[in-house]
């Protein structure tokens, strides 16, 4: 085997390692959690991305592997040109598992964001190697006319376009354009590379790598087709029906109740992709991920009606109700993909502390329901469940008012505490800076639902909860970038044998936050200035 083949084997081994780590939950020693798995790399390096030191080590190993593969033992520049091409083609193979989580990706047990990040890093390196290869090869050519040369140039241009159209800025502001372009350009790139390679030996590298890529692409498309058909088309109930209603008092969020064509077994942590079959704004071409926030529990095993909580953003979600906020109800046919997403196993923890900001609440509520149901059947050991929820406006608390009431009534042993932190836009302006308890059903109950009319302070609240914890404690986050960083920093200081941290698949951002590198750096500098002011005894917020 030559070095590029060894590289292919090493890449496979790295993938297997990631799979094992994702599926076999072995708790690493506290030292590794504190210094490698939980802390992130410096914000000035990672920007808005959530890269832990462990992930940085994996990325670093991958980069080093590629440098070694393309440079070790080369004797001439043409060797280097050949190596970069081979390494690029090998790296392209796993990209065709798909960048978005799908049946195959979900089966692997890797989390949504980790899956997308692996795809992005492999893609970046494959494109860089392709560009280096083409530039050096083109520089050594005298004429530029053959089919191989022209298709090589086309392949490189396509790869460069894929890179430019996948930057964070484009993904954030033109997600649909990015997604559709990606879908079209990726197979075109492979076809151009195929035409570029003059060799007729199909079962030898590099053509065999392209054949593997084509086969993988075919398998992923076929599994997608089978999955969508199975999930959505049933003889008596073809397609799902989506009933969209505005939530009480708040126009920022709508509730989507999906009557599923084919019921399934619901677990907390599941999300689905759904697309509406309506021609308006070409919505039928778009499919978007949302957590299953609640469900009808008439049946024990499978569920045929689930509810999603959808926050309005600027695209697909902006006009789900045809009449805008004036209209209160709409019903449409929908196509569903999923469920995806792995469940956090919380049953063995004595204390479960859940944090959510904004729409992140949709991911946390199913866990509370699951724990309370398990507690009634004595299947979980939780003695204390605490939910922290920070919202921008007081009116947002009505998004899930009914679900919270249901949870409180399920909590017959009073193990649940809910703390809502309201940052501003108070309905009751005289409560600013104060704490208010929701009325209790009867005098014998403890106070379980508390409203804080001020922002959440991670250091104080997390420290306090870890101090009060009973038994093994898990802290789960579905919070915006800033809150996640703050809580993570406190957990890194306080982690011990009893404490675990989990960050869920989705990181809700406020409407104002841009998620860019600059805004991440600005947040970091602001938090630094705040810390310095605090240490000088000056508590003024900057
Ligand atoms: C695992 C997961 C679970 C989620 N659960 C919920 C939920 O329960 N409730 C909720 O309100 N939101 C949830 N979201 C976010 C939701 O998917 C996006 O807000 C929605 O897709 C935005 O659609 P839009 O066209 O209106 O977005 P735009 O206004 O065009 O963009 C807003 C943001 O959403 C991102 N985005 C747009 N389309 C997609 C897509 N197809 N996939 C991923 N990101 C996209 C963009 O990059 C941008 O950052 C979840 C996201 C993920 C990844």
From TrEMBL:
<dbReference type="Pfam" id="PF01794">
    <property type="entry name" value="Ferric_reduct"/>
</dbReference>
<feature type="transmembrane region" description="Helical">
    <location>
        <begin position="177"/>
        <end position="197"/>
    </location>
</feature>
<keyword id="KW-0249">Electron transport</keyword>
<feature type="transmembrane region" description="Helical">
    <location>
        <begin position="209"/>
        <end position="230"/>
    </location>
</feature>
<dbReference type="InterPro" id="IPR039261">
    <property type="entry name" value="FNR_nucleotide-bd"/>
</dbReference>
<feature type="transmembrane region" description="Helical">
    <location>
        <begin position="6"/>
        <end position="26"/>
    </location>
</feature>
<keyword id="KW-0560">Oxidoreductase</keyword>
<dbReference type="GO" id="GO:0000293">
    <property type="term" value="F:ferric-chelate reductase activity"/>
</dbReference>
<protein>
    <recommendedName>
        <fullName>FAD-binding FR-type domain-containing protein</fullName>
    </recommendedName>
</protein>
<keyword id="KW-0813">Transport</keyword>
<keyword id="KW-0812">Transmembrane</keyword>
<dbReference type="InterPro" id="IPR013121">
    <property type="entry name" value="Fe_red_NAD-bd_6"/>
</dbReference>
<dbReference type="InterPro" id="IPR051410">
    <property type="entry name" value="Ferric/Cupric_Reductase"/>
</dbReference>
<dbReference type="GO" id="GO:0006826">
    <property type="term" value="P:iron ion transport"/>
</dbReference>
<comment type="similarity">
    <text>Belongs to the ferric reductase (FRE) family.</text>
</comment>
<feature type="transmembrane region" description="Helical">
    <location>
        <begin position="56"/>
        <end position="74"/>
    </location>
</feature>
<dbReference type="Pfam" id="PF08022">
    <property type="entry name" value="FAD_binding_8"/>
</dbReference>
<keyword id="KW-0406">Ion transport</keyword>
<dbReference type="GO" id="GO:0005886">
    <property type="term" value="C:plasma membrane"/>
</dbReference>
<feature type="domain" description="FAD-binding FR-type">
    <location>
        <begin position="234"/>
        <end position="346"/>
    </location>
</feature>
<dbReference type="GO" id="GO:0015677">
    <property type="term" value="P:copper ion import"/>
</dbReference>
<dbReference type="GO" id="GO:0006879">
    <property type="term" value="P:intracellular iron ion homeostasis"/>
</dbReference>
<dbReference type="InterPro" id="IPR013130">
    <property type="entry name" value="Fe3_Rdtase_TM_dom"/>
</dbReference>
<feature type="transmembrane region" description="Helical">
    <location>
        <begin position="80"/>
        <end position="101"/>
    </location>
</feature>
<keyword id="KW-1133">Transmembrane helix</keyword>
<dbReference type="Pfam" id="PF08030">
    <property type="entry name" value="NAD_binding_6"/>
</dbReference>
<dbReference type="InterPro" id="IPR013112">
    <property type="entry name" value="FAD-bd_8"/>
</dbReference>
<dbReference type="InterPro" id="IPR017927">
    <property type="entry name" value="FAD-bd_FR_type"/>
</dbReference>
<keyword id="KW-0472">Membrane</keyword>
């Amino acid at each position: 085997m030559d070095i590029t083949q060894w590289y292919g084997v090493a890449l496979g081994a790295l993938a297997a390692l990631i799979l094992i780590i994702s599926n076999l939950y072995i708790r690493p020693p506290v030292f590794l959690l504190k210094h490698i798995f939980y802390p992130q790399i410096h914000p000035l390096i990672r920007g808005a991305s959530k890269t832990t030191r462990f992930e940085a080590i994996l990325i670093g190993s991958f980069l080093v592997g590629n440098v070694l593969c393309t440079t070790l033992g080369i004797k001439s520049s043409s060797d280097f040109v050949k190596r970069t091409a081979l390494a690029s083609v090998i790296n392209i193979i796993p990209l065709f598992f798909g960048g978005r989580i799908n049946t195959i990706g979900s089966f692997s047990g890797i989390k949504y964001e980790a899956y997308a990040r692996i795809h992005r890093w492999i893609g970046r390196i494959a494109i860089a190697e392709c560009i280096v290869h083409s530039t050096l090869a083109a520089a050594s050519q005298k004429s530029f006319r053959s089919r191989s040369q022209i298709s090589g140039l086309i392949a490189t241009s396509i790869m460069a376009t894929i890179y430019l159209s996948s930057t964070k800025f484009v993904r954030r502001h033109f997600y649909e354009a990015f997604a559709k372009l990606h879908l079209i350009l990726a197979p075109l790139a492979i076809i151009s590379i195929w035409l570029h390679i003059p060799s007729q030996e199909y079962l030898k590298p590099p053509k065999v790598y392209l054949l593997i890529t084509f086969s993988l692409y075919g398998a992923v498309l076929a599994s997608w087709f089978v999955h969508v058909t199975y999930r959505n088309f049933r003889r008596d109930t073809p397609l799902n029906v989506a009933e969209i209603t505005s939530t009480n008092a708040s126009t920022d969020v709508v509730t989507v109740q999906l009557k599923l064509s084919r019921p399934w077994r619901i677990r907390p942590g599941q999300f689905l992709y759904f697309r509406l079959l309506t021609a308006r704004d070409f919505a039928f071409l778009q499919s978007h991920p949302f957590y299953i926030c609640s469900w009808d529990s008439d049946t024990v095993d499978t569920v045929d009606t689930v509810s999603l909580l959808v926050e309005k953003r600027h695209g697909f979600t902006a006009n789900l109700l045809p009449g805008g906020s004036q209209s209160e109800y709409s019903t449409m046919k929908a196509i569903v993909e999923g469920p995806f997403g792995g469940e956090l196993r919380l049953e063995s923890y004595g204390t479960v502390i859940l944090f959510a900001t904004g729409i992140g609440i949709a991911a946390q509520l199913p866990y509370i329901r699951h724990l309370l149901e398990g507690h009634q059947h004595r299947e979980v050991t939780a003695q204390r469940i605490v939910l922290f929820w920070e919202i921008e406006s007081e009116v947002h608390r009505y998004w899930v008012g009914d679900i919270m009431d249901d949870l409180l009534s399920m909590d017959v042993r009073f193990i649940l505490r809910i703390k809502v932190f309201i940052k501003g836009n108070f309905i009751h302006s005289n409560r600013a800076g104060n704490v208010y308890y929701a009325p209790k059903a009867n005098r014998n109950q403890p106070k379980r639902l508390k409203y804080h009319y001020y922002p959440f302070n991670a250091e104080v609240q997390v420290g306090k909860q870890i101090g009060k914890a009973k038994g093994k404690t898990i802290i789960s986050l579905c919070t915006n970038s800033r809150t996640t960083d703050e809580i993570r920093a406190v957990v890194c200081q306080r982690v011990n044998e009893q404490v675990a941290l989990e960050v869920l698949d989705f990181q809700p951002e406020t409407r104002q936050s841009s998620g860019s590198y600059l805004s991440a750096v600005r947040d970091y500098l602001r938090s630094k200035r705040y810390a310095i002011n605090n240490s000088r005894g000056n508590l003024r917020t900057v």
